[in-house]
Amino acid sequence: MTPDEHWNRRLDLERRLHDGPALRIAAVTLHLGLLAEKAHDLRPDIEDLQRQLHVVQQELRLIADRIYPPLLREQGLGAALRELTAGAPVRVDATAERFGPAVEGVAFYTVCEVLGGGRDDTRTVDITVRRDDAGLVLDLANVDTGQVVTVRDRIEWLGGAVEIVGGAALPTIKVRIPCG
């Protein structure tokens, strides 16, 4: 399976979870609300079922978001990274340009892995996303460079490369992913 096929399948699965079961659960919840109005004796039980369905719906959304975040699909890498890092000591400088589902997905989950691998909260992480002649360039400055091992395979899968630049005090992980 090619990287594009893989990420397109992830996108399709995210859409199916959102558009299928999640919407059906919302419809059942509304239907239960109408029944509660008709059957006053069952109202507490119906309201409990509605709460349980709401929890299931939230769980489905969380699963779908982990497969391929809707904001990444709808607005791109910059917006998704800003939402991911909101409230954290992280600066995101990202082009609004789109790179395709596979490239954006790999770049997004690379940032998730690097940031999730431990961070010194006394330093602000700088994330820069831009396009050069070869494709997407992702710079992660002031991060734990030990995370390179965990992200290298997914970057190389797309024909990209990962390198560590700078000194020990201010290391930067530089990711390049080719794209058209």
Number of helices: 6
Low-pLDDT regions: none
What's the helix-strand series? Answer: HHHHEHEEHEE
Q: Could you tell me the strand content as a percent range? A: 15-25%
**Name given to the CATH architecture of the largest domain:** 2-Layer Sandwich
Present the secondary structure layout.
Blueprint: H1 3-38, H2 43-67, H3 70-75, H4 77-85, E1 90-94, H5 101-116, E2 125-131, E3 135-141, H6 148-157, E4 161-165, E5 172-178
Parallel strand pairs: 1-2
Antiparallel strand pairs: 2-3, 3-5, 4-5
Describe this structure in words.
The protein has two domains: 3-68; 74-178, Histidine kinase-like ATPase, C-terminal domain (Heat Shock Protein 90). Helices cover 57% and strands 17% of the residues. The chain has six helices and five strands, in the order ααααβαββαββ. The protein has helices at residues 3-38, 43-67, 70-75, 77-85, 101-116, 148-157, and strands at residues 90-94, 125-131, 135-141, 161-165, 172-178. The protein has a five-stranded mixed β-sheet with strand order 1-2-3-5-4.
Q: Key features?
A:
180 residues; Heat Shock Protein 90; 2 domains; five-stranded mixed beta sheet; 57% helix; 17% strand
In short:
This protein is α+β, with helices and mostly antiparallel strands and 180 residues long. The chain has helices spanning 3-38, 43-67, 70-75, 77-85, 101-116, 148-157; strands at residues 90-94, 125-131, 135-141, 161-165, 172-178.
